[in-house]
Amino acid sequence: MRHAPALLLAASLLVPAAARGQSQAPAPAQDGQAKPPALEVTIDRSKVDLKGRTLEVKLSRAAAKVHIKVLGQSGAVLAEDEKPFNGAAAGTPLVVTWPPTGEEPVARIEVYGHDTKGYWAGIALIPWNVTIPHEEVQFETNSDVIRPSEVPKLEASLRRISEVAAKSAELGKITLFIVGHTDTVGSVEHNLGLSRRRARAIAAWFKGRGLTLPVAYEGLGESAPIVNTADEVDEPRNRRVDYILSVEPPKLASGAASWKAL
């Protein structure tokens, strides 16, 4: 059995907002004054660095401060901090960090932006995901057909996927993301299409066997190898498929790639 590596980049852990709240805090506008538009807080997901414990926030109005709370999978608060920004102009990138969180994995990050008028708005990120270890399905050359001999591998993977998803259901709506990869034998275009077809075939197999989770897939061909090789090199470790459980879509290494719902 070979364990599939973590997908792509550290940035693959970064996810869109899973929850959003807003509060307009101070006294109502005086007579004749229009109520200001809702305060917007946005996070540049490409600038979220879990290992470096930093992220970048923007407010739609002048910023007074940003409060951050980091929670673990147990629900415990792992870290909490607040940083003043002294009226930084609307749209200014505000870099926020948090103290070390220990060994427990981060399950949720809550960010609250406060403007200079006393209003605040919050946004939550759920950077949880799990790459499921599994034994690779072996396809015939240039084929995306799952052979009967490979079915026991998929059955074992399906059991693991279902178990992990059931234990983590409280985090939100979990999706299975499947990514196909190839070695460098063949053209780039051929390998891209082949990896996508194989990922889709596995996704369809899981759904056909009763997996109730949403499933999305994509193929990256030879663009994200584990082992860097020259062209036309038969490297088995690069012929693989990743199975990732996540609340939100992981970031793909290729800007041209996009998740496809089954």
Helix content: 10-25%
Pattern of helices and strands:
EEEEEEEEEHEHEEE
Which radius of gyration do the C-alpha atoms yield? 22 Å
What is the 3D form? elongated
Low-pLDDT segments: 1-22
Strands of the widest sheet, in order across it, are 1-8-7-4-5
User: How many separate helices?
Assistant: 2
Written description of the protein model:
- It is a single chain.
- This protein has 262 residues and is an alpha+beta fold.
- The protein is 15% helix and 31% strand.
- The strands form 3 sheets. The protein has a 5-stranded antiparallel sheet with strand order 1-8-7-4-5, with no helix packed on it.
- The two termini are 27 Å apart.
In brief, what are we looking at here?
This protein is of the alpha+beta class and 262 residues long. It has helices at 151-167, 188-208; strands at residues 17-23, 41-43, 54-59, 63-72, 77-88, 94-97, 106-115, 120-125, 129-131, 175-180, 215-219, 241-246, 260-261. The relative contact order is 0.18.
